Amino acid sequence: MIDGICELTLEVTDLDRALAFYAGTLGLSELQREDDRVWLEVSEHVRLGLWTPGEKEHGDQGGRHVHFAFSASPGGLDDVYARLTEAGHGVEGPIEHDGGDRSIYVEDPEGNVVEVWDFLARGEGAREGMDALAD
Q1: What is the pLDDT of residues 71-97, one digit of tens each?
Q2: DSSP letter, residue 30
Q3: How many CB atoms lie within 10 A of CB 84?
């Protein structure tokens, strides 16, 4: 019934600073901009919203989350690590998990914990393993 995430929205107090991190450092492309929000392309079917504080449509009001994770290929994880450290961001990891997959963790300018994880491309989380679980 559900086959993925199509969007995630974060509340940010400084839209330009958040854009510098997500579009500049992480390389996400800007899809659409309004006065109080920007949508960025994460992948073909996934977008990230950066919204300034305040009530939006449908009663959306923002708030804290624990963390979220971007998916990366094995080589892509190393590339993201390099980009983050070259830009001066403190990065935790790479941390190798029991199944062989790896993660890095970084805080964005708003204090949100962002994980970049190669779970769907390496180790136990690899797509072949995920397909076997569905059978």
Answers
A1: 988 789 999 999 999 999 999 999 998
A2: E
A3: 19
pLDDT above 80: residue 26: yes
Q: Are 10 and 48 in contact (CB under 8 A)?
A: yes
**CA torsion angle for 31, 34, 38, 41 (degrees, to 10)?**
-10
H-run or E-run covering 33: strand 29-34
Q: 19 lies in a domain?
A: yes
**Residue 43 is assigned to a structural domain of this protein:** yes
Q: Is residue 64 part of a domain?
A: no
As a dihedral over the C-alpha atoms of residue 118, residue 107, residue 53, residue 62, rounded to 10 degrees, the angle is 50
What is the rounded end-to-end Cα distance, in angstroms, of the chain? Answer: 15
The domain total for the chain is 2
